[in-house]
Amino acid sequence: MTDTGRPSVKALDGSQRLPLLVRWCLKRARRKGRTGVLVFAEIREPVRSLTHKAGIVSVREEGVELCSRDRGAKTPRFIELPPGPHRLEFGVTRMKASGSTSFLQVVDLKEGETLVALCDPVQSNVFYRRSPDVDSWVIGVFPNREKG
Q1: 145 Cβ partners below 8 Å, 6+ apart?
Q2: Selection from 104, 73, 82 nearest residue 2 by Cα
Q3: How does strand 8-11 pair with strand 136-142?
Q4: Are 30 and 124 in contact (CB under 8 A)?
Q5: CA 78 to chain CA centroid, nearest Å
Q6: φ, ψ for residue 12 (rounded to 5)?
Q7: Is pLDDT larger for residue 72 or for residue 62?
Q8: Which residues 6+ apart lie within 8 Å of 127 measured at CB?
Q9: Count of Cβ atoms closer than 10 Å to residue 107 Cβ
Q10: Cβ-contact 88, 108 below 8 angstroms
Q11: DSSP 8-state code for residue 9
């Protein structure tokens, strides 16, 4: 995937409230001590919408697709990764290459850490809750929950 646009990327801080399904998946992963990436795409387009502007949110490592979410996938996805450094490419792909965006993020995951990536892609066919002007990402690492 080529970087043809600049998405908005922000750090996930403690003041932001995660969507309910993301909180449940994160809690389950932390309870089990799993290491990996939790991806959630907030795509509000109807499943039956016929548009070439619909985006597919994906995460790649070294050119290999780890996960993708489209308008048919409404739940978060956890991808198991080994602890250590990872060079991840986060992107939104559209039929028209001029509308695709991506960026690289290097992250060093320790045992039990979870990288949470939330995406709110541009969606032209929604009539409620205005779509962002650029693809928006919020990314943060959650440490393993302390036992005791």
Answers
A1: 30, 31, 112
A2: 104
A3: parallel
A4: no
A5: 10
A6: -85, 120
A7: 62
A8: none
A9: 16
A10: no
A11: E
Point out the least confidently predicted range of 5-9, 57-61, 118-122. Answer: 5-9
CA distance 128 to 108: 38
Query: Can you tell me the mean pLDDT for 75-84?
Result: 94
SS3 content of the chain, % helix, strand, coil (to 5): 10, 40, 50
Beta-carbon count within 10 A of 138 CB:
18
CB atoms within 10 A of CB 9: 14
Closest CA to 39 of 2, 6, 65, 13: 65
CB atoms within 10 A of CB 3: 13
Amino acid at position 99, single letter: G
b or e along 43-76 (b: 16 or more beta carbons within 10 Å of the residue's beta carbon)? bebeeeeeeeebbbbbbbeeeeebbbbbbebeeb
Query: Per-residue pLDDT tens for 43-67?
Result: 777 666 666 666 888 999 998 999 9
Nearest partner of 99 among 70, 83, 123, judged by Cα: 123
